[in-house]
Structures are given as structure tokens and as C-alpha cells.
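Hi Y.,

Following your request, here is the sequence exactly as I used it, all 293 residues.
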Amino acid sequence: MSWLLLLLVWIGLSFSLDPVKVMYLDHRLREKDFEKAVKLVKNRMEEEGLKVARVLKVSDAIRSRGVKDFPHYYILFGCTSPQVSDLLVKAPALSNLLPCSVALYQGQSGALHATILNPYPFLIKYADRLSKEERAWVLSTYSKLNGLLNSLSVRPVRMTKIKPLKEDLVKETVVNLGYDDVKMLLKSSLDGVNMNVLDVMDMREKTPRFSIFLTCNLSYGEVILKRVPQFGTLAPCRVYTYEKDNGSTVIGYVNIPLLIKIYRKHLMEDQAKIFEKADEDIEKAIREVAGSN
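Below is the corresponding structure, written out as C-alpha cells. Let me know if you'd prefer a different format.
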């Protein structure tokens, strides 16, 4: 009985925690030198088989626009594996978890941080789309990632379970166009609303095909990442596309209005408006693609 009471108390506390602390796993690193920290994390990921596919130097890009005092900020994309493509077809929302993002940055105190998403919100929400073995693989992957970051951190961080959110974590639109046409039009439309496409990751090249567009507006990122640097785990925004059996194509991305709702207390009014504008821009780009059929 006492164990049941403790469990109920623990669950209740987890729900009352700061949402940033629940949704993200934020590690304060022991290393003081940023370049060395990036190399350490990258090498440890490779050693654990969590292959790093890309390193996005966000701070370099923002500084090149004249913001010379922007703090160090890189994003490592990793955890690539042949299994990922099959998982994404079953649960496209997991494209926010896989490939994984490690945000490496200098906090306001000057300390270096490595932040990753807590996999549980996405995994619990869409658990019924995956087999027991597939869910275990995702958890194992993130446990390895969190474990190696713990080994480099001032203090360990634990993955926190939460109850499933009622809202969908992504928004999807079905477009009655072929996959190749949608990819071409989507890139043009996103660029046209200044949500610039930095890269297109073709996660699955056999039918049903699946791609992730890494898209961002650096002026938005500059403001948001200074205030809530943990959001870099979802930046650049991942807009995904995949084929349906009937020849149509789905376009989806993270539910930005839900993020605003969850993190409202951490955002100043102008920052919330930037999130809203980013959502409007992506929606406009998708409408342009959908209107082309």
C-alpha cells in the first residue's frame, strides 16, 4: 500500500513540474570549452552507435547576420539507423524524436548545456502505432543518449514519464498530389514565406517514401533560443512528408499552438507572437502546396 501511495505522489509531482523540465532533458556539462564539448558529445554518440549525421552551427549563422553577441549554439542530428525509416512510416510524429537532436549551447550563466527531448510525451501518445519491440528500441536509444550526457554532466538527469496529452502533438494536411510534386512545391513555398529550407533529409526512399524538411527563420530563432534555449531540440522546425497508398501525400509538423499553450509562462508576449507567426508561415506554405492540385 505504501508503494502505491508513493507512486501516486510521484505521478502527481511529475505533472506539476515545470513543463520545460518535464519535456526536455537539460544537462549542465562539466566541460567549459564549447568546441571541446561539441567534440566530446559527438565522439561519445559515435561510440554508442548513435551516428551523428549533421552538425548545425546555429550561432555561426545568426552571428553572420550581424548579431555578434549571440551565445554559442550548435545542434547535433544523430541516432540514425535503418530502423528509423520504418518507425516513421508507422508513427510520423516521431520525426520530432528521430533523428534525435542534441542542442549544445552556452546558458545565461555562461555554463555549457546539452539538451535533448524527453521521448515519453511523443512515445506514450503514439505508443499504439508501434510494436513492443519498436517502443523498446526508441527508449533504449534515448536511454543511451541520456546516459552518455549524464556521464559528461555536473549531475545526472532522469527521463520523466508523463500522462498522454489529449491534443495531437503534430498537425497534418493531406494533399492530393504525388510525392515528388509535393516535395518540389513545398520547398519553394517554405522558402517563399522565409521559412528557409536548410536541408531535406530523405529518411525512406522506397515506397512509402518519407522526408523531413529542416526549415527555419533565423530572425525567429534568434529571439526564441535566447529566451528558451531548450527549444533548439525542435529547431529547425521539422516539416515532414510521406506517401499514402492512394497516391496522395501528407504534410505534417509539430503542433506549435500546443507548444505555446504548454510553455506560455516561459514566453514573453513578443516571443509568443513569433511562435504564432512561424505557425502562420508554415500553414501558408502548406496551403499554397495544397492549392496547386
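The longest strand covers residues 196-204.

Thanks again,
Q.
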